[in-house]
């Protein structure tokens, strides 16, 4: 009698594969697109002089005044990191690496420019840089969500290894640039 009362087993793998997109997936997409495309645009300002940017030559002079020599090379590295890291984050492509590039750039910005001005962006402080670095780290930890190009790959699920990778690679990259 008990066997007749039991519900038949549900094909869970099939149900999961066809489940609708969740609010969390859409929220992660919105977060990735917003921060990723803004950072890609910020990189375009440095590299190409669009969106109100000064372009590579002028940005290179600014980097040289901060002690980065040769300034144009470091401007290209910074702008390229923002551009490619931002696009990677927006697309959910190589998400831990994209997060690492943005974390590294933000660490450099904090150390060389904003840390001396305190916390708040209104005073030129680290607020903006911290927010971007934390969002990038959180996306590496959570994963880019179902609406991402990384979805089929192991690292597309997020987790501690991805978060540690993003933080360590970003930190090591920043340290190398700061030492040179």
Descriptive account of the structure:
This protein has 180 residues and is mainly alpha-helical. The protein is 69% helix and 0% strand. It has helices spanning 2-5, 12-17, 23-48, 55-65, 71-91, 95-114, 127-142, 160-179. Helix 3 (23-48) packs antiparallel against helix 5.
Q: What amount of the residues lies in strands?
A: under 5%
Unreliable segments of 5+ consecutive residues: none
Query: Helical stretch count?
Result: 8
Over the alpha carbons, how many angstroms does the gyration radius reach? 20 Å
Number of strands: 0
Mean pLDDT: 92
Q: For the terminal residues, how far apart are their CA atoms? A: 77 Å
Supply database-style keywords.
0% strand; mainly alpha; 180 residues
Mind sketching the topology for me?
Blueprint: H1 2-5, H2 12-17, H3 23-48, H4 55-65, H5 71-91, H6 95-114, H7 127-142, H8 160-179
Short description:
This protein has helices at 2-5, 12-17, 23-48, 55-65, 71-91, 95-114, 127-142, 160-179. The chain is 69% helix and 0% strand. The protein is elongated, with a radius of gyration of 20 Å.
């Amino acid at each position: 009698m008990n066997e007749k009362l039991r519900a038949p087993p549900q094909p869970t793998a099939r149900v999961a594969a066809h489940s609708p997109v969740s609010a969390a997936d859409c929220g992660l997409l919105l977060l990735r697109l917003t921060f990723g495309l803004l950072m890609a645009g910020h990189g375009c300002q440095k590299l190409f002089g669009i969106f109100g940017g000064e372009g590579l030559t002028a940005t290179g002079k600014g980097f040289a005044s901060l002690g980065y020599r040769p300034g144009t090379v470091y401007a290209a590295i910074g702008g390229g990191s923002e551009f490619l890291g931002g696009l990677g984050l927006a697309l959910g492509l190589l998400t831990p690496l994209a997060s690492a590039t943005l974390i590294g750039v933000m660490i450099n910005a904090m150390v060389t420019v904003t840390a001396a001005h305190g916390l708040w962006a209104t005073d030129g402080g680290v607020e903006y840089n911290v927010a971007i670095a934390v969002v990038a780290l959180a996306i590496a930890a959570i994963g880019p969500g179902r609406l991402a190009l990384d979805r089929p790959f192991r690292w597309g699920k997020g987790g501690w290894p991805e978060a540690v990778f993003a933080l360590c690679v970003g930190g090591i990259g920043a340290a190398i640039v700061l030492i040179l």
